[in-house]
Amino acid sequence: MLAERTGFIIWVSDIKAARNLEKYGSVHYISRRMQYVVMYVNADRAEETARNVRRLSYVRKIERSYRNEIKKEYSSKTPDKTQFYGV
């Protein structure tokens, strides 16, 4: 079974040093222009990992991703209009 994951957006001042974040979790994306890293870690160790990453000298700010909390089931109150167009 897959472990529950939590995402972090980490704003950094040095992109080359940001490659070292791979030892704390899986790095999903590194933006060179805006200088941030998207990283996923196990949810049960998320607070401990964030505390350790915050101590690094090249980390400016850490934001938690709220993607897991967004509702993924959509419901439509309006009727489907495709039947009127003969699709």
Indicate how many domains the architecture comprises.
1
What is the second-level CATH architecture? 2-Layer Sandwich
The top-level CATH class is Alpha Beta
The largest β sheet comes out as: 4 strands, antiparallel
Structural class: alpha+beta
Mean pLDDT: 90
Strand proportion, as a percent range, falls in: 25-35%
Number of helices: 2
Tell how many strands the DSSP assignment holds: 4
CATH homolog superfamily: Peptidase S8 propeptide/proteinase inhibitor I9
User: Going across the major beta sheet, what is the strand order?
Assistant: 2-3-1-4
Helix fraction, binned, reads 10-25%
Say what the CATH topology is.
Answer: Alpha-Beta Plaits
Q: Over all CA atoms, what is the radius of gyration?
A: 19 Å
As residue ranges, the low-confidence spans are none
Overall geometry: elongated
